[in-house]
Amino acid sequence: MNVATFLLRRLLIMIPTLWVIATLTFFLVHAAPGGPFQAERDIPAAAKAQLMKTYGLDRPLHEQYVSFLTHAARLDFGPSYKFPQRQVREIIAEAFPVSLELGGWALLIAILIGVPIGVIAAVRQNSSLDYAAMATALAGVSVPNFVLGPVLVLGLALTLFVLPPALWEGPQSRILPVLTLSTAYVAYIARLTRGGMLEVLGQDYIRTARAKGLPESRVVGKHALRLGILPVVSYLGPATARVIMGSVVVESIFSVPGLGRYLVNAAFNRDYTLVLGLVLFYASFLLLLNLAIDVAYTRLDPRVELA
Amino acid sequence: MKLPRVLGLAALASLLACAPAARRPVAANASAPRWFGSTALPPGNVLRFNLGAEPETYDPDLAVGQPDGRVARMLFEGLTREDPQTLEPLPGEAYRWEISGDGRTYTFHLRPGIRWTDGRPVTAEDFRWSWIRLLEPKTTSRYASFLFAVTNAEAFNKGDVKDERAVGLAAPDDSTLIVRLDQPVPYFLYLCQFYSCLPVPRRTVERFGNRWTLPANIVGNGAFTLTYWRQNNRFEFAKNPAYWDAASVHLDRVVGYTIDDLNTSFNLYKAGVIDWCPSGYFPSSFIPYVRGYADYHHGDYQGVYFYTMCVKRPPIDNVWVRRALNAAVDREAIAQDLLKGSRRAWGDFVPTGYPGYENPPGLRFDPAYARQCLTRAGYPGGKGFPRGISILINTSEDNRRIAEAVQAMWKRELGIDVAIQNEEWGSYLQTVTALKYDVARRSWLGDYLDPNTFLACYVTGDGNNRSGWGDPRYDAMIRAAAKELDAKRRFAILRGAEALLLADGPVIPVYHYSTNELVKPYVRGIYQTPLDVHPLTHVWIDRDWRRGPPPVASASPPAPRSKAITRRAAAREKVR
């Protein structure tokens, strides 16, 4: 099967998948107790009725559902209920680049540091270097963001005063959130790389490569790494989606205006349109990434074919 | 393997919690004030502060929360504006006004030469149109009721009166606004400066619809203009050179960050990135640590934390059960032991600080009386008291701790078992509104300086009542007070109403809110106010702050003041 047909088929399959996600989300969010227009202070009945009418919430649920689907098909999610002066689209367009930048740096660092650590640990298996690397990785995976973030702030921002404690202004402000977000990924990627490499290094073709006199750096760096990194590649799909869609913890600790906080707050606020818009955006992104990973697989491992 | 990790986390967490205390520098001179964190001056004449959670909107007619109001007040000015210390109404866009003898007609005279930022003059018609917009049903304002005292305003808002000319607002010429009220409202001038009553620019609103407030479109008449906004990040304001009092606006720029994480807000204050951390924007558990610093300001805030009881469900429909539950709550223990004195125990429903109003004697912790009441209700020693009664709280650490304390008090003093039920905010509101609870945590914050802002909630069927309680005697008192012209008699009636509410009603007051804020020493002109409202018009950055406070505390223009209020302000000054 050639690449174009494969892509087309996969893209077409995405449509029913997204429809199922949209439907589930729609009914789940409407089933949650309460609604978008309630507050500690009572809203006069007339104002509430008018609000419900303005947003079409007075119509039967199935009508709302159909209207939502037809609009969503055109990528129109309407205005946010909580922030009525803004369209859901605008909110995503403003916040996504921030999450993309934060997540992009974190992911880049995770790969650039995690993969070499994993390779070294695998090559020096059972050496003290290996143990040290894996112990550090275990610690990195185990410390949650909400502990690591404040510790970094306390040390670097409030004691040494070398970095701003929060906010998204200027290059220095990127360092702490990126560090906080990437640590767990560095650790996880290092472990995955080590595992993948160990498996590959024992295989026949590596012995062949060594037998024909290739330098060790070439054996490891070219022949082994290409297959040894496959577990990392398949992990990168969902990891990228997660890290780039924004982490609510990191965004809150560092007051970063990214997507993660919107999603959580929208759910609490019963901001139906914003929840639906964000969930569908996330879902599409994840599906596309998985597709990209599948294509990347065939490039790295000639034995894998598109099907 | 698992246990040490958990312990490690706990140790880290406690380390973080103690951080402010551990880092407290040792004062070389005990009498010199100590400041928390950096005191480096900001670059230029700029004030940077935490505006709080992201405002939902800052269209004055739609604004609902404190952050919304903060932004709206900077961009727009009402007929009156607040005195920065007492919040008394001072001349704003109106430079003088007359009140008729029966207190029902207000004639405002607008200041000559006032302009919107697009150069158009601010006219009386702008005010009339803005207030009609607030009242119009299609605006869906949540605060339209602020103007219900105006003739026909309520009927217009409910859609019963269609003609806006029937509403008691008239602009006979560009500089005169005449407001007719159904009843005298002694606090009407306070309402005029509330954010819902600020004027909005008609042309801009009509042209851009609900997008008129975006920085590119917005037109204002306040001391500042909006120059930048990024959601979940910050608002930037610049001094409005066209503002009539621009000569006494000292700040060139104001940056309001929207930081909702309390720890983050605290860190930014400490690092000197923000100059002012307003009340409620750092964790209350840090209060004991910052108490010794001179930049910590503390005062009464017009709000009460209380428990509401749903009187539609047995056994709480029985007034003796309600009295028993009330008398068995040890407020002092909650305020002093649990909350470490960061709040004040409060047995009344109306908070303190209303000029001229005296609360009835507050409810007191009286276990013997509580047991008597429970016996009278038919449950001696808690015997036969129904099971399955619960306290509903919305998710928060403090709410849970207080609920656990109350649960223990009721068990100890009355021998009854209640459960604690925890819901996130949206579900909690739904449950309370639908009266599907037994006892629930609530709080109420005042909007203007009059007990009515509290007591009106418990009129039968009021949307904020949420307890099912109603008493014709109470309703009659609130109505009578609204008609009473004499302030003293009016307060006496309201005092009676409050006493009735406490004796028979559905509320268990717990504590009085307080403002707890951090202000850098070089910021001048931010004062403690009972409404936690802080006009920034006259705030300035004192680059010479180490030489001590300036001789004149406030740069606000002189204004006529009643003696009582001046005395109160003086007393407050002394307390501080």
TrEMBL record, chain B:
It is found in: Cell envelope. Keywords: Signal, Transport. GO terms for cellular component: ATP-binding cassette (ABC) transporter complex; cell envelope; periplasmic space. Residues 89-465 form the Solute-binding protein family domain. Pfam families: SBP_bac_5 (PF00496). Residues 550-576 are annotated as: Disordered. Residues 550-560 have a biased composition (Pro residues). Residues 1-21 form the signal peptide. CDD domains: PBP2_OppA. InterPro entries: Peptide/Ni-bd, SBP_5, SBP_5_dom. Belongs to the bacterial solute-binding protein 5 family. This is Peptide ABC transporter substrate-binding protein. One of its GO terms (molecular function) is peptide transmembrane transporter activity. One of its GO terms (biological process) is peptide transport.
